[in-house]
Amino acid sequence: MTGVVAPAERWELLKGEVKGAAKKYSQDRCTARHVAEGRAVVLAVADGHGSAPHFRSDLGARWAVEEFAVCAQEFAAAAVRYDDEAEQYEDKGPWWNALAELRAEARRLPQLVAHRWYERATLHDCNSPAHGAHRHPPKGPDLTAYGTTLVGAVLTRRLLVCWQLGDGDVVVLDAAGTPYTPLYTGPDLGDETDSLCAPESWHHARCHWQPLTSEGPSGVLLSTDGLSKSFTDHQGFLDFAAGVQGRAHELGIPAVRGRLTEWLSHAAQYSGDDTTLVGAFEAAGPAAPRQNDAPHT
Amino acid sequence: MSDTFDLPGGSMASRPVHFIWLLDCSGSMSVNGKIAELNFAIREAIPEMQSAARSNPGATLLVRAVSFASGASWHINDPTPVDQFTWEDLHTYGGTDMGAAFRLAAGALQTPPMPQRALPPVIALVSDGQPTDDWRSGLRAIDDTPWGKRAVRVALAIGDDADKSMLKEFLANPELEPLQAKNPRQLAAAIRWMSTAVKAASTPKGDGGGPVQAPPPVALGKDEDEDPIW
Question: CATH number of the domain at A8-282, please?
Protein backbone atom coordinates (compact mmCIF):
# COMPACT_ATOMS: atom_id res chain seq x y z
CA MET A 1 0.00 0.00 0.00
CA THR A 2 1.21 3.51 -0.76
CA GLY A 3 0.86 6.49 1.52
CA VAL A 4 2.87 5.11 4.41
CA VAL A 5 5.77 7.04 5.82
CA ALA A 6 7.51 6.89 9.17
CA PRO A 7 5.20 5.90 12.05
CA ALA A 8 4.56 8.81 14.40
CA GLU A 9 6.51 7.12 17.18
CA ARG A 10 9.54 7.48 14.94
CA TRP A 11 9.21 11.26 15.16
CA GLU A 12 11.37 12.97 17.71
CA LEU A 13 10.03 16.16 19.20
CA LEU A 14 11.66 19.51 19.86
CA LYS A 15 10.41 22.41 21.92
CA GLY A 16 11.99 25.71 22.94
CA GLU A 17 10.72 29.09 24.06
CA VAL A 18 12.42 32.30 25.17
CA LYS A 19 11.17 35.65 26.37
CA GLY A 20 11.67 38.72 24.21
CA ALA A 21 14.46 41.10 25.15
CA ALA A 22 13.25 43.76 27.61
CA LYS A 23 9.90 42.01 28.15
CA LYS A 24 8.73 41.17 31.65
CA TYR A 25 7.32 37.79 30.71
CA SER A 26 6.55 35.78 27.62
CA GLN A 27 3.12 35.76 26.01
CA ASP A 28 3.96 32.77 23.82
CA ARG A 29 2.74 29.25 24.63
CA CYS A 30 3.40 25.95 22.87
CA THR A 31 3.06 22.19 22.93
CA ALA A 32 4.69 19.26 21.15
CA ARG A 33 3.37 15.83 22.05
CA HIS A 34 2.74 12.31 20.87
CA VAL A 35 -0.97 11.40 20.90
CA ALA A 36 -3.18 8.49 19.81
CA GLU A 37 -1.06 6.04 21.78
CA GLY A 38 2.06 7.47 20.27
CA ARG A 39 0.93 7.07 16.67
CA ALA A 40 0.41 10.74 15.90
CA VAL A 41 2.06 14.03 16.75
CA VAL A 42 0.39 17.31 17.71
CA LEU A 43 2.34 20.56 17.52
CA ALA A 44 1.12 24.05 18.37
CA VAL A 45 2.43 27.54 19.10
CA ALA A 46 0.42 30.62 20.07
CA ASP A 47 1.67 34.17 20.28
CA GLY A 48 -0.26 36.48 22.59
CA HIS A 49 -0.20 39.99 21.14
CA GLY A 50 1.44 41.40 24.24
CA SER A 51 0.81 45.12 23.82
CA ALA A 52 -1.22 47.13 26.36
CA PRO A 53 -4.69 46.48 24.87
CA HIS A 54 -3.94 42.74 25.01
CA PHE A 55 -2.77 42.56 28.62
CA ARG A 56 -4.23 39.07 29.13
CA SER A 57 -2.83 37.63 25.94
CA ASP A 58 -0.63 35.17 27.82
CA LEU A 59 -3.85 33.54 29.02
CA GLY A 60 -5.31 33.73 25.52
CA ALA A 61 -2.22 32.02 24.11
CA ARG A 62 -2.33 29.27 26.74
CA TRP A 63 -6.00 28.53 26.07
CA ALA A 64 -5.41 28.58 22.32
CA VAL A 65 -2.75 25.89 22.63
CA GLU A 66 -4.75 23.83 25.11
CA GLU A 67 -7.97 23.90 23.10
CA PHE A 68 -6.17 23.21 19.86
CA ALA A 69 -4.44 20.24 21.48
CA VAL A 70 -7.79 18.79 22.60
CA CYS A 71 -9.35 19.17 19.15
CA ALA A 72 -6.23 18.05 17.31
CA GLN A 73 -5.94 14.99 19.52
CA GLU A 74 -9.46 13.88 18.54
CA PHE A 75 -8.68 14.58 14.91
CA ALA A 76 -5.46 12.57 15.12
CA ALA A 77 -7.25 9.67 16.83
CA ALA A 78 -9.79 9.55 14.01
CA ALA A 79 -7.03 9.61 11.41
CA VAL A 80 -5.22 6.76 13.14
CA ARG A 81 -8.44 4.76 13.42
CA TYR A 82 -9.10 5.07 9.71
CA ASP A 83 -5.48 4.18 9.08
CA ASP A 84 -5.92 1.00 11.13
CA GLU A 85 -8.98 -0.01 9.18
CA ALA A 86 -7.18 0.47 5.90
CA GLU A 87 -4.25 -1.54 7.20
CA GLN A 88 -6.47 -4.32 8.50
CA TYR A 89 -8.25 -4.90 5.20
CA GLU A 90 -5.28 -4.08 3.00
CA ASP A 91 -7.62 -1.99 0.94
CA LYS A 92 -6.96 1.60 -0.08
CA GLY A 93 -10.65 2.33 -0.62
CA PRO A 94 -11.66 2.96 3.01
CA TRP A 95 -8.67 5.22 3.50
CA TRP A 96 -9.53 7.38 0.51
CA ASN A 97 -13.12 7.58 1.69
CA ALA A 98 -11.91 8.49 5.14
CA LEU A 99 -9.78 11.27 3.72
CA ALA A 100 -12.91 13.09 2.58
CA GLU A 101 -14.32 12.92 6.11
CA LEU A 102 -11.03 13.94 7.66
CA ARG A 103 -10.74 16.85 5.30
CA ALA A 104 -14.16 18.07 6.32
CA GLU A 105 -13.10 17.73 9.95
CA ALA A 106 -9.92 19.66 9.22
CA ARG A 107 -11.98 22.49 7.75
CA ARG A 108 -14.22 22.55 10.82
CA LEU A 109 -11.41 22.42 13.34
CA PRO A 110 -10.56 26.18 13.38
CA GLN A 111 -14.16 27.04 14.20
CA LEU A 112 -14.23 24.41 16.92
CA VAL A 113 -11.02 25.68 18.49
CA ALA A 114 -12.16 29.29 18.22
CA HIS A 115 -15.46 28.44 19.88
CA ARG A 116 -13.80 26.63 22.77
CA TRP A 117 -11.29 29.47 23.16
CA TYR A 118 -14.12 32.00 23.09
CA GLU A 119 -15.95 30.15 25.87
CA ARG A 120 -12.90 30.09 28.12
CA ALA A 121 -12.07 33.73 27.51
CA THR A 122 -15.68 34.78 28.03
CA LEU A 123 -15.92 32.83 31.28
CA HIS A 124 -12.71 34.41 32.52
CA ASP A 125 -13.88 37.87 31.52
CA CYS A 126 -17.20 37.35 33.28
CA ASN A 127 -15.45 36.35 36.49
CA SER A 128 -12.81 39.03 36.21
CA PRO A 129 -13.85 41.76 33.77
CA ALA A 130 -10.89 43.00 31.80
CA HIS A 131 -12.11 46.58 31.99
CA GLY A 132 -13.33 46.55 35.55
CA ALA A 133 -17.02 46.12 34.80
CA HIS A 134 -19.21 44.18 32.43
CA ARG A 135 -19.72 46.17 29.26
CA HIS A 136 -20.63 43.53 26.78
CA PRO A 137 -21.74 45.11 23.53
CA PRO A 138 -24.72 43.65 21.65
CA LYS A 139 -22.47 41.47 19.50
CA GLY A 140 -20.86 39.79 22.49
CA PRO A 141 -18.00 40.35 24.89
CA ASP A 142 -14.91 42.25 23.86
CA LEU A 143 -12.08 39.73 24.14
CA THR A 144 -9.36 42.04 22.83
CA ALA A 145 -7.43 41.66 26.08
CA TYR A 146 -6.90 37.96 25.32
CA GLY A 147 -5.82 38.35 21.67
CA THR A 148 -3.50 35.71 20.30
CA THR A 149 -2.44 33.94 17.14
CA LEU A 150 -2.41 30.15 16.74
CA VAL A 151 -0.40 27.81 14.56
CA GLY A 152 -0.92 24.05 14.85
CA ALA A 153 -0.24 20.76 13.11
CA VAL A 154 -1.20 17.10 13.24
CA LEU A 155 1.13 14.49 11.81
CA THR A 156 0.31 10.82 11.33
CA ARG A 157 2.05 8.31 9.13
CA ARG A 158 -0.45 9.03 6.34
CA LEU A 159 -1.39 12.64 6.85
CA LEU A 160 0.01 16.07 7.62
CA VAL A 161 -2.44 18.90 8.36
CA CYS A 162 -1.39 22.39 9.45
CA TRP A 163 -3.58 25.30 10.52
CA GLN A 164 -2.67 28.93 10.97
CA LEU A 165 -4.57 31.91 12.32
CA GLY A 166 -2.49 35.08 12.32
CA ASP A 167 1.25 35.39 12.02
CA GLY A 168 3.85 32.72 12.74
CA ASP A 169 5.42 30.11 10.51
CA VAL A 170 5.09 26.50 9.44
CA VAL A 171 8.16 25.00 7.78
CA VAL A 172 7.95 21.52 6.30
CA LEU A 173 11.14 19.73 5.32
CA ASP A 174 10.64 17.29 2.47
CA ALA A 175 12.25 13.87 2.29
CA ALA A 176 15.45 15.42 0.98
CA GLY A 177 15.48 18.00 3.78
CA THR A 178 14.49 20.92 1.53
CA PRO A 179 12.35 23.40 3.47
CA TYR A 180 9.09 24.87 2.24
CA THR A 181 6.45 27.04 3.91
CA PRO A 182 3.00 25.83 2.82
CA LEU A 183 1.04 28.57 4.59
CA TYR A 184 3.37 31.49 3.90
CA THR A 185 1.58 34.47 2.36
CA GLY A 186 4.51 36.86 2.04
CA PRO A 187 6.00 39.30 4.50
CA ASP A 188 3.64 41.16 6.85
CA LEU A 189 3.95 44.92 7.03
CA GLY A 190 4.08 46.45 10.47
CA ASP A 191 3.30 43.45 12.64
CA GLU A 192 -0.41 43.43 11.88
CA THR A 193 -1.96 40.05 12.42
CA ASP A 194 -5.23 38.19 12.49
CA SER A 195 -6.28 37.15 15.96
CA LEU A 196 -8.48 34.70 17.80
CA CYS A 197 -10.06 37.68 19.58
CA ALA A 198 -11.62 38.95 16.33
CA PRO A 199 -15.28 38.16 15.61
CA GLU A 200 -15.65 34.88 13.69
CA SER A 201 -11.88 34.60 13.67
CA TRP A 202 -11.95 31.11 12.13
CA HIS A 203 -12.73 32.64 8.75
CA HIS A 204 -9.17 33.95 8.74
CA ALA A 205 -7.60 30.54 9.43
CA ARG A 206 -5.55 28.89 6.70
CA CYS A 207 -5.17 25.13 6.34
CA HIS A 208 -2.53 22.99 4.67
CA TRP A 209 -3.75 19.50 3.81
CA GLN A 210 -1.18 16.92 2.75
CA PRO A 211 -1.92 13.18 2.50
CA LEU A 212 1.48 11.57 2.74
CA THR A 213 2.96 9.38 0.09
CA SER A 214 6.05 7.24 0.39
CA GLU A 215 7.98 10.52 0.09
CA GLY A 216 6.59 12.19 3.20
CA PRO A 217 8.20 15.05 5.09
CA SER A 218 11.30 14.50 7.17
CA GLY A 219 10.53 17.35 9.54
CA VAL A 220 7.89 19.88 10.55
CA LEU A 221 8.66 23.09 12.44
CA LEU A 222 6.21 25.60 13.90
CA SER A 223 7.37 28.93 15.28
CA THR A 224 6.06 32.29 16.43
CA ASP A 225 6.94 35.29 14.29
CA GLY A 226 9.69 36.38 16.67
CA LEU A 227 11.93 33.79 15.04
CA SER A 228 11.42 34.53 11.34
CA LYS A 229 11.49 38.29 11.91
CA SER A 230 14.95 38.13 13.42
CA PHE A 231 16.38 37.07 10.04
CA THR A 232 17.20 39.67 7.44
CA ASP A 233 15.33 37.68 4.79
CA HIS A 234 12.99 34.73 4.39
CA GLN A 235 15.70 32.52 2.92
CA GLY A 236 17.79 32.97 6.07
CA PHE A 237 14.87 31.64 8.09
CA LEU A 238 14.42 28.65 5.76
CA ASP A 239 18.15 27.97 6.06
CA PHE A 240 17.71 27.97 9.83
CA ALA A 241 14.98 25.31 9.60
CA ALA A 242 17.13 23.16 7.33
CA GLY A 243 20.11 23.77 9.59
CA VAL A 244 18.25 22.63 12.70
CA GLN A 245 17.42 19.39 10.97
CA GLY A 246 21.01 19.08 9.78
CA ARG A 247 22.27 19.50 13.34
CA ALA A 248 19.70 16.94 14.53
CA HIS A 249 21.01 14.39 12.04
CA GLU A 250 24.61 15.27 12.75
CA LEU A 251 24.55 15.64 16.54
CA GLY A 252 21.28 14.04 17.58
CA ILE A 253 18.08 15.58 18.92
CA PRO A 254 19.34 15.77 22.55
CA ALA A 255 22.24 17.95 21.44
CA VAL A 256 19.88 20.22 19.50
CA ARG A 257 17.57 20.46 22.51
CA GLY A 258 20.56 21.55 24.53
CA ARG A 259 21.36 24.36 22.12
CA LEU A 260 17.91 25.45 21.09
CA THR A 261 17.40 27.95 23.91
CA GLU A 262 20.67 29.70 23.02
CA TRP A 263 19.69 29.86 19.37
CA LEU A 264 16.27 31.27 20.15
CA SER A 265 17.70 33.74 22.67
CA HIS A 266 20.07 35.00 20.01
CA ALA A 267 17.18 35.48 17.60
CA ALA A 268 15.08 37.26 20.24
CA GLN A 269 17.78 39.88 20.64
CA TYR A 270 17.09 40.97 17.07
CA SER A 271 13.33 40.65 16.86
CA GLY A 272 12.76 41.89 20.42
CA ASP A 273 9.82 39.49 20.54
CA ASP A 274 9.07 36.28 22.42
CA THR A 275 10.43 33.44 20.32
CA THR A 276 9.06 29.91 20.35
CA LEU A 277 9.77 26.86 18.22
CA VAL A 278 8.32 23.35 18.25
CA GLY A 279 9.14 20.60 15.80
CA ALA A 280 9.07 16.96 14.88
CA PHE A 281 11.90 15.26 13.06
CA GLU A 282 11.99 11.78 11.63
CA ALA A 283 14.34 9.78 13.82
CA ALA A 284 17.50 8.78 11.98
CA GLY A 285 18.32 5.66 13.99
CA PRO A 286 16.28 3.05 15.84
CA ALA A 287 12.97 4.20 17.28
CA ALA A 288 13.49 6.48 20.23
CA PRO A 289 11.67 5.86 23.52
CA ARG A 290 8.22 7.39 23.29
CA GLN A 291 7.57 10.59 25.16
CA ASN A 292 4.23 12.14 25.91
CA ASP A 293 5.63 15.59 25.48
CA ALA A 294 8.87 17.16 24.35
CA PRO A 295 11.12 17.98 27.28
CA HIS A 296 11.61 21.64 28.00
CA THR A 297 14.89 23.00 26.78
CA MET B 1 31.10 25.62 21.95
CA SER B 2 32.09 28.31 19.48
CA ASP B 3 31.26 32.01 19.89
CA THR B 4 28.37 31.70 17.48
CA PHE B 5 27.30 28.43 19.17
CA ASP B 6 26.86 26.80 15.79
CA LEU B 7 23.78 28.85 14.96
CA PRO B 8 22.17 27.60 11.75
CA GLY B 9 20.54 29.86 9.18
CA GLY B 10 21.12 33.22 7.55
CA SER B 11 22.13 36.54 9.02
CA MET B 12 20.04 38.29 11.66
CA ALA B 13 19.46 41.98 12.25
CA SER B 14 17.17 44.17 14.29
CA ARG B 15 14.34 45.80 12.37
CA PRO B 16 14.57 49.41 11.22
CA VAL B 17 12.10 52.01 12.45
CA HIS B 18 12.13 55.27 10.48
CA PHE B 19 11.45 58.58 12.21
CA ILE B 20 10.62 61.48 9.90
CA TRP B 21 10.41 65.07 11.13
CA LEU B 22 8.20 67.39 9.00
CA LEU B 23 9.15 70.89 10.13
CA ASP B 24 7.57 74.23 9.28
CA CYS B 25 10.14 76.79 8.18
CA SER B 26 7.69 79.45 7.00
CA GLY B 27 8.41 83.13 7.56
CA SER B 28 6.12 83.23 10.60
CA MET B 29 8.44 80.79 12.36
CA SER B 30 10.97 83.61 12.60
CA VAL B 31 8.58 85.65 14.76
CA ASN B 32 9.41 85.71 18.47
CA GLY B 33 12.27 83.27 17.98
CA LYS B 34 10.16 80.19 17.21
CA ILE B 35 12.60 78.66 14.73
CA ALA B 36 15.52 79.17 17.10
CA GLU B 37 13.58 77.52 19.92
CA LEU B 38 12.59 74.64 17.62
CA ASN B 39 16.23 74.07 16.64
CA PHE B 40 17.21 74.16 20.30
CA ALA B 41 14.41 71.78 21.33
CA ILE B 42 15.25 69.18 18.69
CA ARG B 43 18.94 69.30 19.55
CA GLU B 44 18.15 68.94 23.25
CA ALA B 45 15.80 66.00 22.57
CA ILE B 46 18.43 63.88 20.83
CA PRO B 47 19.59 62.16 24.05
CA GLU B 48 15.96 61.28 24.86
CA MET B 49 15.58 59.84 21.42
CA GLN B 50 18.75 57.80 21.82
CA SER B 51 17.57 56.58 25.19
CA ALA B 52 14.20 55.51 23.76
CA ALA B 53 16.02 53.62 21.03
CA ARG B 54 18.29 51.86 23.48
CA SER B 55 15.29 50.69 25.49
CA ASN B 56 14.28 48.48 22.57
CA PRO B 57 17.24 46.56 21.18
CA GLY B 58 14.91 44.88 18.69
CA ALA B 59 14.66 48.09 16.67
CA THR B 60 17.20 50.26 14.86
CA LEU B 61 16.04 53.88 14.92
CA LEU B 62 16.79 55.88 11.76
CA VAL B 63 16.07 59.62 11.69
CA ARG B 64 15.53 62.02 8.82
CA ALA B 65 13.89 65.43 8.42
CA VAL B 66 11.93 67.44 5.86
CA SER B 67 11.67 71.22 6.04
CA PHE B 68 8.87 73.04 4.27
CA ALA B 69 8.22 76.68 3.45
CA SER B 70 8.11 77.71 -0.24
CA GLY B 71 8.30 74.11 -1.38
CA ALA B 72 9.83 71.30 0.64
CA SER B 73 13.19 69.59 0.78
CA TRP B 74 15.04 66.98 2.78
CA HIS B 75 16.89 68.70 5.59
CA ILE B 76 18.41 65.34 6.50
CA ASN B 77 18.14 63.14 3.45
CA ASP B 78 19.70 59.87 4.56
CA PRO B 79 18.05 57.73 7.24
CA THR B 80 20.58 58.35 10.00
CA PRO B 81 21.14 55.96 12.91
CA VAL B 82 20.10 57.85 16.01
CA ASP B 83 23.49 57.35 17.64
CA GLN B 84 25.03 59.34 14.78
CA PHE B 85 22.24 61.90 14.58
CA THR B 86 23.22 65.55 14.90
CA TRP B 87 21.12 68.61 14.23
CA GLU B 88 21.89 71.37 11.72
CA ASP B 89 19.85 74.52 12.31
CA LEU B 90 16.81 75.19 10.15
CA HIS B 91 16.18 78.66 8.67
CA THR B 92 12.93 80.29 7.60
CA TYR B 93 12.28 80.99 3.93
CA GLY B 94 8.68 81.68 2.82
CA GLY B 95 5.21 80.09 2.82
CA THR B 96 3.81 76.91 4.41
CA ASP B 97 3.83 74.29 1.65
CA MET B 98 2.91 71.39 3.87
CA GLY B 99 1.43 69.40 0.99
CA ALA B 100 4.84 69.38 -0.69
CA ALA B 101 6.34 68.01 2.53
CA PHE B 102 3.71 65.28 2.69
CA ARG B 103 4.44 64.25 -0.89
CA LEU B 104 8.17 64.14 -0.18
CA ALA B 105 7.58 61.95 2.86
CA ALA B 106 5.19 59.74 0.89
CA GLY B 107 8.02 58.89 -1.49
CA ALA B 108 10.06 57.61 1.45
CA LEU B 109 7.16 55.53 2.74
CA GLN B 110 6.97 53.32 -0.34
CA THR B 111 8.38 49.79 -0.35
CA PRO B 112 11.08 50.11 -1.59
CA PRO B 113 12.86 52.21 -0.37
CA MET B 114 11.44 51.26 3.03
CA PRO B 115 12.07 47.56 3.64
CA GLN B 116 9.16 45.19 4.23
CA ARG B 117 10.62 43.98 7.50
CA ALA B 118 10.65 47.51 8.97
CA LEU B 119 8.61 48.46 12.00
CA PRO B 120 5.91 51.11 11.55
CA PRO B 121 7.50 54.52 10.95
CA VAL B 122 6.93 57.67 12.97
CA ILE B 123 5.88 60.90 11.24
CA ALA B 124 6.25 63.97 13.46
CA LEU B 125 4.70 67.19 12.10
CA VAL B 126 5.43 70.63 13.56
CA SER B 127 3.72 73.78 12.26
CA ASP B 128 2.74 77.28 13.38
CA GLY B 129 0.37 78.28 10.60
CA GLN B 130 -2.05 77.55 7.80
CA PRO B 131 -0.87 75.44 4.86
CA THR B 132 -0.45 77.51 1.70
CA ASP B 133 -0.64 74.67 -0.82
CA ASP B 134 -2.84 71.64 -1.51
CA TRP B 135 -2.07 69.74 1.68
CA ARG B 136 -5.00 67.33 1.27
CA SER B 137 -3.57 65.72 -1.85
CA GLY B 138 -0.23 65.43 -0.05
CA LEU B 139 -1.87 63.76 2.91
CA ARG B 140 -3.68 61.38 0.56
CA ALA B 141 -0.30 60.52 -0.95
CA ILE B 142 0.91 59.47 2.52
CA ASP B 143 -2.29 57.54 3.24
CA ASP B 144 -1.93 55.71 -0.06
CA THR B 145 1.48 54.28 0.83
CA PRO B 146 1.71 50.93 2.64
CA TRP B 147 3.72 52.43 5.48
CA GLY B 148 1.93 55.78 5.63
CA LYS B 149 -1.33 54.23 6.74
CA ARG B 150 0.51 52.22 9.40
CA ALA B 151 2.64 55.09 10.68
CA VAL B 152 2.56 56.44 14.21
CA ARG B 153 1.66 60.10 13.73
CA VAL B 154 2.27 62.94 16.13
CA ALA B 155 1.64 66.64 15.53
CA LEU B 156 2.53 69.86 17.30
CA ALA B 157 0.87 73.25 16.88
CA ILE B 158 3.10 76.18 17.79
CA GLY B 159 1.07 79.18 18.87
CA ASP B 160 -2.58 80.04 18.31
CA ASP B 161 -2.32 80.59 14.57
CA ALA B 162 -1.60 76.94 13.76
CA ASP B 163 -4.34 75.08 11.87
CA LYS B 164 -5.25 72.59 14.57
CA SER B 165 -8.14 71.04 12.66
CA MET B 166 -5.78 70.28 9.82
CA LEU B 167 -3.23 68.80 12.24
CA LYS B 168 -5.98 66.64 13.74
CA GLU B 169 -6.84 65.40 10.27
CA PHE B 170 -3.19 64.50 9.79
CA LEU B 171 -3.32 62.39 12.96
CA ALA B 172 -6.13 60.35 11.37
CA ASN B 173 -7.48 59.32 14.75
CA PRO B 174 -10.49 61.06 16.28
CA GLU B 175 -9.26 60.17 19.77
CA LEU B 176 -6.01 62.07 19.36
CA GLU B 177 -5.42 65.81 19.57
CA PRO B 178 -2.35 67.66 18.36
CA LEU B 179 0.03 68.88 21.00
CA GLN B 180 0.18 72.63 21.54
CA ALA B 181 3.11 74.82 22.54
CA LYS B 182 2.69 78.48 23.39
CA ASN B 183 6.11 79.16 24.83
CA PRO B 184 9.65 77.75 24.63
CA ARG B 185 9.26 75.46 27.63
CA GLN B 186 6.13 73.84 26.22
CA LEU B 187 7.84 73.51 22.85
CA ALA B 188 10.81 71.72 24.40
CA ALA B 189 8.53 69.36 26.36
CA ALA B 190 6.46 68.58 23.27
CA ILE B 191 9.50 67.90 21.11
CA ARG B 192 10.92 65.61 23.79
CA TRP B 193 7.65 63.69 23.93
CA MET B 194 7.43 63.45 20.14
CA SER B 195 11.00 62.20 19.97
CA THR B 196 10.10 59.23 22.12
CA ALA B 197 6.98 58.30 20.12
CA VAL B 198 9.28 55.74 18.59
CA LYS B 199 8.49 53.55 21.61
CA ALA B 200 4.96 53.07 20.28
CA ALA B 201 6.26 52.21 16.83
CA SER B 202 8.84 49.70 17.98
CA THR B 203 6.52 47.65 20.16
CA PRO B 204 6.76 44.18 18.63
CA LYS B 205 3.03 43.71 18.17
CA GLY B 206 0.54 46.18 16.81
CA ASP B 207 -3.01 46.55 17.88
CA GLY B 208 -4.33 43.33 16.46
CA GLY B 209 -4.80 44.49 12.91
CA GLY B 210 -5.79 48.12 13.31
CA PRO B 211 -3.52 51.06 12.60
CA VAL B 212 -0.75 51.59 15.10
CA GLN B 213 -1.69 54.47 17.35
CA ALA B 214 0.49 56.97 19.05
CA PRO B 215 0.10 57.30 22.80
CA PRO B 216 -2.34 60.01 23.91
CA PRO B 217 -0.91 63.50 24.19
CA VAL B 218 0.59 64.35 27.55
CA ALA B 219 -0.31 67.45 29.45
CA LEU B 220 2.35 70.03 28.84
CA GLY B 221 3.69 72.58 31.31
CA LYS B 222 0.93 73.78 33.62
CA ASP B 223 3.06 76.33 35.34
CA GLU B 224 0.85 79.32 36.12
CA ASP B 225 3.83 81.57 35.64
CA GLU B 226 4.35 80.43 32.09
CA ASP B 227 2.82 83.09 29.88
CA PRO B 228 1.92 82.31 26.32
CA ILE B 229 4.35 84.01 23.96
CA TRP B 230 3.19 82.58 20.65
Answer: 3.60.40.10
Q: Which of A70, A67, A48 is nearest to A59 (CA)?
A: A48
Alpha-carbon distance of A297 to A15, in angstroms, equals 7
Quote the DSSP letter at residue B89: P
ipTM of model = 0.86
Beta-strand ranges (E) seen in chain A are 11-18, 28-35, 40-47, 150-155, 159-165, 169-173, 179-180, 206-211, 219-223, 275-282
Is there a cis peptide before residue B113, judged by omega within 30 degrees of 0?
A: yes
Q: Does A189 touch chain B (CB under 8 A)?
A: yes
For residue B48, what is the enclosing H or E element? Answer: helix B34-54
A20, A51, A232 member nearest B13 (Cβ): A232
Chain B residue with minimal CA distance to A55? Answer: B207
CB contact under 8 A, A190 and B10: no
pTM: predicted TM-score of the whole model, two decimal places = 0.87
Chain B contact probe: residue of A24, A189, A197 with most B CBs at under 10 A: A189
- Could you report the average pLDDT of every consecutive run of 10 residues in chain A (297 residues)? 58 96 91 95 96 92 98 97 83 82 97 98 92 69 94 96 97 96 89 91 97 88 96 97 95 94 95 95 63 55
Cα separation of A109 and A208, whole Å? 12
Domain assignments of chain A as residue spans, ordered by start: 8-282
